[in-house]
Design goal:
mainly alpha; two-stranded antiparallel ribbon; 27 helices; LANO_0B04984g1_1; antiporter activity
């Protein structure tokens, strides 16, 4: 039927044919050439640029010209459609065109679908016509074969764009525009200077994940560029509790003991929310890698909302901590000072929670240096503020100044990071506040709870070792505290490398590139060995210097120097543990990691440490041999799971998660449309939604 209509209209006098501009009517005309049906989808095939045939033939690129605007940028996807339309037009005579009417009030803000549905409908119609009849297709193939040969048809088919991918990106951009809720924008913003259809704009990072060539060398460069700023960020964060202890420590031993107890309580509590935020290591990079940028912002909002609800009982515990701590600690003055610190710290915890989530939000977009800029400002100010509020003769308030300085520092960190997102980089994935943040918390908890277990299992193991070491004597407790603090500091290096690896893995999983995700996983595990060896050499070679930093007592110094080599060897396994666990989060397999950490630490490592420490009288050496054995087993098991996973299952889970998100977006659009207008959606709008 299409051939008959084409041949009939080709006989029309050229003066009667439209050039795409309506005269004497109330509508604008957009010209589209007839497309030759093809078994391999003729709508979005990418051709090499060649000379156009025909002088009056209009293309999709004339959309901007018909509106009196200019297209400032070009996009390969626009070129693909443009060349296809030109090719089809030239093959059917070069003069024939089909006009489609658009509303004449282009300067107004019409319905979001009104100026794009005609394109989608035309594509759907032509794509379906390609499959209409095998016989018709064969006849047309015979008719057009001589012309295809003359145009080097085989050479022009080297690159093919997927039709479904094009349609998906159109719909995703429409949904993004709808939910900004500032206004209902049209497909192209028509101004006197013109603009680019933002539906075709692609981010460089997405193209890199989806189509970039990934090798072990190139991935190593990316991992290094991600890890270095992240390592500095985590190291700077560790300065804050150290500054708090140093400024209060000179007030007295009760104040120092209270700050230590309060710091231990806050660290254990805030580790819960760091564990919840690790769910974003899976969700945000996968959404970003798949091109669902608005979904990255929704995941951020959902995680913050979930964390704030979870924080309520912890805030209750902190406020009434004097009662709860009094049940296990008999020294009333110590309990009173600790409770005073925790009550003030309640005000700063929400800022810290949001800061940690925003860091993951930026990391998913490949922005790792924002934390450095923020902490380079906040770290010196924290030292100054702590000293001023504790020791200044005019405005210093003593012990209470330390938690107040911490609270002010947390809120300053949050404010600066928000300013970075708004004014520098990172806002492209923010689609505005959305009520979907208060849904699907069960699915979020399935990722958050294993993340909490993975972090808390190791943090609590160190605290348990410190508690057990107190039974061996004061010198053993001091030595264990010094080694634990040092090991925690060096642990930030593999932890930062692990987060960088998990981000890359999740990006590739979201982009459905299992081969690249495999390369990133292998590189992450390889880096864990180098990082572990670096930490081991650092601790062993600097053991005397480290010992004298913490104490001048000969017995304590001797214990630290003797125990540090064993702790250094354990750090090799701990580095493997940290990076392998992060890679599991990038693959969306943190549930397995949580079970492994929980079982190995509390059913094997800690019992073994207690047996070696007390039964065999090995004391601190027995404790570290037991915990080191647990690190070795966890790192080995998780490393194997990272290197040999079921990639098909991982991709399928990521796809199911993405489809659920898209379904939510469509539901959100339907809800918004129904509340925004009482009119019945037209046929083209229903076609787009289906």
């Amino acid at each position: 039927m299409a051939n008959i209509l084409t041949k009939s209209l080709a006989q029309v006098h050229p003066k009667l044919r439209t050039n795409g501009i309506g005269i004497g009517n109330n509508h604008r005309k957009i010209s589209l050439g007839f497309l030759q049906p093809s078994k391999r989808n003729p709508l979005v095939r990418k051709y090499k640029r060649r000379r156009r045939y025909g002088t009056d033939q209009q293309s999709f690129r004339s959309l901007g010209e018909d509106f009196g605007s200019t297209i400032a940028r070009e996009d390969p996807m626009i070129d693909a459609i443009d060349e296809e339309l030109d090719a089809a037009g030239s093959e059917d005579g070069g003069e024939l065109s089909r006009t489609v009417s658009l509303p004449s009030r282009v300067s107004e803000t019409p319905d979001v679908h009104s100026e794009v549905d005609w394109i989608l409908e035309e594509h759907e119609r032509r794509y379906s016509s390609a499959q209409h009849s095998d016989e018709e297709f064969q006849n047309e193939e015979e008719d057009t074969q001589p012309r295809r040969s003359s145009l080097n048809y085989d050479e022009e088919q080297q690159e093919v764009l997927e039709y479904d991918d094009f349609m998906k990106r159109v719909r995703q951009q429409l949904l993004f525009d709808v939910n900004r809720r500032q206004h209902r924008p049209s497909f192209i913003s028509v101004t006197s200077r013109g603009s680019v259809p933002n539906v075709y704009e692609s981010l460089e990072s997405e193209e890199e994940c989806k189509h970039g060539t990934v090798t072990l060398k190139s991935e190593a460069k990316v991992l290094a560029s991600y890890s270095i700023p992240l390592i500095l960020t985590f190291l700077l964060e560790q300065i804050f509790p150290l500054v708090c202890s140093l400024t209060v420590g000179h007030l007295g031993k009760n104040e120092l003991a209270a700050v230590s107890l309060a710091s231990m309580t806050t660290n254990i509590t805030l580790a819960v929310f760091e564990g919840i935020s690790t769910s974003l290591d899976t969700l945000c990079p996968q959404a970003f890698g798949s091109g669902n940028y608005r979904g990255v912002g929704i995941h951020l909002q959902r995680c913050i909302a979930f964390s704030m609800v979870v924080y309520v009982p912890f805030a209750f515990f902190w406020f009434f901590s004097e009662f709860f701590l009094g049940l296990v600690i008999k020294e009333k003055e110590l309990v009173s000072l600790t409770a005073k610190f925790l009550r003030i710290a309640i005000l700063g915890a929400p800022a810290y929670i949001m800061f940690e989530n925003l860091k993951r939000f930026l990391q998913a977009q490949g922005i790792f240096d924002a934390g450095i800029y923020v902490l380079l400002v906040c770290a010196p100010l924290n030292v100054l503020t702590s000293y001023t509020l504790v020791w200044n003769s005019k405005i210093g308030i003593g012990y209470a100044g330390a938690p107040i300085a911490m609270v002010l520092n947390f809120w300053l960190m949050l404010a600066l990071l928000l300013a970075y997102i708004v004014y520098v980089d990172g806002s492209r994935c923010w689609g505005g506040f959305n009520k979907k943040a208060f849904t699907h918390w069960k699915a979020l908890s399935e990722l958050a709870i294993p993340g909490i277990v993975m972090l808390e299992a190791e943090d609590l193991s160190y605290e348990i070792l410190t508690l057990f070491s107190s039974y061996f004597g004061t010198s053993y407790l001091a030595a264990q505290s010094a080694i634990s603090t040092t090991v925690t500091l060096t642990y930030m290096i593999p932890f930062a490398v692990g987060i960088s690896s998990s981000t890359r893995i999740a990006n590739f999983v979201g982009a459905k590139r299992a081969d690249c995700a495999k390369i990133a996983s292998q590189l992450g595990i390889s880096c864990s060995l180098f990082v572990g060896l670096f930490n081991c050499i650092l601790l062993i070679s600097c053991r005397n210097f480290i010992a004298h930093i913490y104490s001048n007592d000969p017995e304590v110094v001797k214990l630290i120097t003797e125990l540090m080599p064993l702790a250094g060897v354990a750090e090799i396994f701990d580095s493997l543990n940290a990076i392998a666990g992060s890679c599991l989060r990038g693959q969306g397999m943190q549930a397995i990691g949580g079970v492994i950490n929980l079982v190995v630490y509390y059913l094997l490592a800690i019992p073994l440490a207690i047996v070696l420490g007390w039964t065999f009288d090995m004391k601190l050496f027995g404790l570290w041999i037991g915990i080191g054995t647990g690190m070795f087993l966890i790192g080995t098991i998780e490393g194997y799971l990272v290197l040999f996973p079921n990639w098909e299952k991982i991709l399928r889970r990521a796809e199911m998660r993405r489809e659920a998100e898209e379904a939510d977006e469509l539901d959100s659009e339907d809800d918004y449309s129904s509340t925004d207008s009482d009119e019945e959606p037209d046929e083209e709008t229903r076609l787009l939604r289906n």
